[in-house]
Structure of FAD-binding oxidoreductase:
Amino acid sequence: MTAREQSAARVGAPVRAQAGVQRGEVPDFAVIGGGLCGRLVAWRLAGAGRRVALYERGDAAGTQSAAWVAAAMLAPLAEAASAELLITRLGAASLDSWPRIIAELPEPVFFQRNGTLVVWHHGDRSEAPLFERRLRANAPAELLEGGLFSLSGAQINAAEPALAGRFTQGWLLPHEGQLDNRQVLAALAAGLAERGVETHWNTAIDDRELPAARITIDCRGLGAKPVLPTLRGIRGEVARVHAPGIGLARPVRLLHPRYPLYIAPKQNDLYVIGATEVEGEDMSPVSVRSALELLSAAFSVHPGFGEARILELNSQCRPTLPDHRPAIVWDGAQTLRVNGLYRHGYMIAPEVADEAVRFALALADGAIADLDAFAGWRLQAHWNELFHVDHPKSRDAVRESA
Ligand SMILES: Cc1cc2nc3c(=O)[nH]c(=O)nc-3n(C[C@H](O)[C@H](O)[C@H](O)COP(=O)(O)OP(=O)(O)OC[C@H]3O[C@@H](n4cnc5c(N)ncnc54)[C@H](O)[C@@H]3O)c2cc1C
């Protein structure tokens, strides 16, 4: 077995942490930031039998995270309209991993793999060939093959009866998925408890006073900006509405030159309508303009949304690096940073977290002691483009490359 296979085997075969972390004992790993990525990483490490502590500035529900606001669509092919091949490949692999993760969690999570429907109003029909061209350029062949079907109006009626008679053309991307983001966060919190992770909710960590641990894994999303200065936030706004009687069976994307929109149906007639994409780290409440755009676009997809009840208008910022790629950054010593999941956190987190966990275990076990060993590790890593080192002796610093 290679080093990667050995550590992969450890990641894939959960072992209950022998005794969890006893108070006062130095854990193997301190994970800072308990949004999506931090919870997954901590849960995986504990599953590999390691002693883990997790520190989150917000509550156990995850309300301070981008992950709390997200629509949690797992749509690597639809995202190929704006994302590059690395992201769509990570997304395709992660989509296969989610059911396995959910099966191991102690609480149920709504997960669906019922595809994405893409539609457009007649006046915006010039968007459709652009969308198709981008997908064909950015998506891996295995996603495109059997993954993209042009639909006539009658076929849309058959696939999504709720939209019968409303659109004359569309695309069906039958393999795509989605899940309930808040259920994932809750189930992961329960999974952390089950695996003996020492959780510190409502505990903000300052870089000058890091908690004691052999290895620190920084998963603070935008909160890592002091140490990753090129990180930026891209604001997203969403509406959560209750709309009984519409009955969409899958996420619907509306192509539009200015207001592209998605409507993601969750359980119990709940719909997440999103999302704006605005440069800037503005966490203020949703603007009137954005609310009007989102809600009127949803109304234009189905007039039933006119009678929906607005449960929430919410905003958050997507943690984004200059190249819009995720990154696993090693400081050359005992700290690893996992960040830059941008608008694809749910779509790619399983693969990114697994890659980070494999590296963290190798670091803890002394297999990566210097920059040469790091270079060797990166060479044989499955997702080698994710790895960076931010060390004075290396030119490959994320800061320098930005
Ligand atoms: C509007 C919107 C819609 C989205 N829709 C989708 C979608 O449909 N599909 C998809 O795949 N992705 C989507 N995303 C993206 C996804 O939410 C993010 O990529 C993902 O949440 C990033 O995960 P993370 O763990 O890196 O960051 P976060 O989820 O933000 O978690 C970071 C955590 O670190 C904590 N933290 C910060 N500073 C500190 C500190 N000093 N001490 C302790 N804790 C700290 C924060 O409180 C937070 O809980 C969407 C995002 C937004 C905003």
Notes: The mean pLDDT is 92. The longest strand covers residues 309-320. The radius of gyration is 21 Å.
